[in-house]
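[retry 2/3] Zinc ribbon domain-containing protein: previous attempt timed out, resubmitting with same input.
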Amino acid sequence: MAQTNPGFESTVVLLANIPSTDHVGSAKALRFPLTGDSPLHRYGPLLELVREEVGAGRKVVALYPAWRAETARSALRFVRGALDSPSDVVAGVSLDQPPLALSLIADQLTYLAPYLPPGIVAALPHELPGHMLTGAWLRKVSNLSDFPVSLRQHMRSYSPRSQFLAVCAPGQELSEVRRDSTAIPIPARPVDPVQLLVAAPNSGDIATFQARIQPTLGQVGSRPLGPQPLAQEYWGAAQYVEFVAISAHPQALTGAINNIRAVACAWCHEPVAAQSCPFCGAVNRLSATPIRPPADPSTRRVPLPEPPTAAESGAQPPATPPPESHAAPPASPPPAQTPPEPSIAPGGRIRSQPLDPSTGAPDPSLPRNGDA
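[retry 2/3] Zinc ribbon domain-containing protein: success.
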């Protein structure tokens, strides 16, 4: 296990009723559903937690769904107005991803928080989806509000034999799936080995979806999960199979971190990767010489989190045992033996980019940061 940096102190919270997938082991973001009859009941537990974290010298990164933004923003305004300390200790980050992906990303951020500055943690929610394949298999898209549905797709949705694949990341895409097709078309595939998280109200639908997508993804480790409480609201359908496919490569998370180009905020000095600082709101000019990770690969590598066992999570074991490449590589391997870093090619397709032998890091691309 790599050593954490005691100066990197941040806590990740998720402002929505989105339970954990338990896929990142014990690393779980704190959840706040923001329900109650009064603002104090809705926002009081969050305020108490923020005060405790700020008192301990930690900053808070609050992740919330962009499609349920108003309640979360009201909670952040309430908390910032009630704090006795400066307001640059809480960062609100909205992300337009479905519930299952949001749940996994929040827990990944919690796992990474001890190794990274708070500003980088706040920037990663916009980078991590580009290294995943997220979406849902749907029977109807007539109530799908977050996708551009064509008139033909809308009319086909009323056919009892219609099937659609809605992909949210690495790029938004909606396509009809023919019943006689041997595979489900996807825009990109994560770097091997691939792990697939699947959730649906009906377990029979999960088995059918896995049989349809396996010719495309190949043999992958699969974990069926219970449905997310907000999934039906997001997908606008009672019948759906929500999925997230991620890479279990030992350097998958490191590759995402290396794509972040951060600069020091001119006001609060926090490393940030967006023009507007998510903590203090100051507008910054993104420099051509960003803050870079240390050159030594052994200090850059973030250890891969171990998913829970089947006994701990109640999930079925993977269809295929994880390959030996799951094991962490040596602390300082020679450049010729270093595995390739996963990255995103133009158009959202995932590729493997060789490391630069002189620095041990890939050539970073511009970040895809949204509004924090």
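[retry 2/3] Zinc ribbon domain-containing protein: DSSP finds ten helices and 14 strands in the chain.
[retry 2/3] clearing retry counter.
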